[in-house]
């Protein structure tokens, strides 16, 4: 069986952060299947974002430049799998995101002719651009395809738009549709995209529970030069509007004004970084908030273990990896009650849930977490159901069903 994964996110020689959770999944699956990954990334800078955030255009350009390798054709090995970094030209996503997969398909035709065969299954992460491209390949080579809903692709769809119509067409054509949380299937239904129940399957990413472990908090703080006597809040994710980092800073400012002696560490990068830096400076809390940039896995593990809590105040989510990784490290989570997060967080057991966009309630939940005596081993056990073996078994069932349908 030949699985061809299409994804706009995957680690490269320049960064091992972008799409690391996809890498973990396909690396494990490559032990059982022949897997090619085609990483789709734009050959041109994000000019629209650079214009919109003109004050920070140099940093946005720099982030784009370092995210992907310049190697656009050579195969690179990862375990038993192989990766192709495919550069393609695209039009501004605000109007043309739904047809972007056509551009990547035309760029990939030579590579596809060498790796697609009658036993192939095309597996796309995100509806656009990968789902569009998967649908085209499926029709061209008469092979089945799968679309994995990742959260942002569904959350951003608005009923009646051209993007909604294009997404609906792709999902109705797909042989199987997976999602990291059942909530995404419900959202599709709410948006009048009624998916065939026989075609859908909830399936998680593969997580590194053997690496994200409970470590001594004092040791980790000394390693990172973090004050042992302070309360520490940690955030990791894109510094983009949907993550609501501005709400977290507002809540943190409330905590400080109420006498809490705390520090806030923010890991990640994105278009909002300039605004966040200006907000921190305006509030006069530059000595309390630290922007770390993107972190490698080993550093993430130490920050999770150093923190008194991890906070994710997002407007919307799928099944955020960072929440699961924090819980594996035995660190409680205060997060918005959105997406798949409520299936992970149980109040007073491993964290607290709050309504999104409510800075005062977020501040209260963080303070409540500060004053709670947590059992870190119980927190870790709360995600023990996300074992590698169980998830791999689900993927085997998925591919077997799709392969049988394709051969039939």
Word description of this protein:
With 408 residues, the protein is of the alpha/beta class. It folds into two domains: 2-204 and 387-407, Rossmann fold; 217-381, Glycogen Phosphorylase B (Rossmann fold). Helices cover 43% and strands 18% of the residues. The protein contains 17 helices and 14 strands. The strands form two sheets. Strands 3-4-2-1-5-6-7-8 form an eight-stranded mixed beta sheet, with helices on both faces. Strand 1, helix 1 (20-29) and strand 2 (34-42) form a beta-alpha-beta unit. Helix 5 crosses helix 6 (127-141) and helix 11 (245-257) packs across helix 15 (359-370). The chain is globular.
Structural class determined from secondary elements: alpha/beta
> What name is given to the CATH topology of the largest domain?
Rossmann fold
In one word, what is the shape? globular
Oligomer: single chain
The average pLDDT score comes to 92
Largest sheet: 8 strands, mixed
Counting structural domains, the number is 2
Q: Kindly provide the name of the CATH class of the largest domain.
A: Alpha Beta
Proportion of residues in extended strands? 15-25%
Tell me roughly what share of residues is in helical segments. Answer: 40-55%
What's the structural blueprint in terms of helices and strands?
Elements: E1 2-7, H1 20-29, E2 34-42, H2 47-52, H3 57-67, E3 76-78, E4 81-88, H4 93-96, H5 100-115, E5 120-125, H6 127-141, E6 145-149, H7 152-155, H8 162-173, E7 176-179, H9 182-190, E8 200-202, H10 217-224, E9 231-236, H11 245-257, E10 262-267, H12 273-283, E11 289-293, H13 297-306, E12 309-312, H14 321-328, E13 333-336, E14 351-354, H15 359-370, H16 376-381, H17 388-407
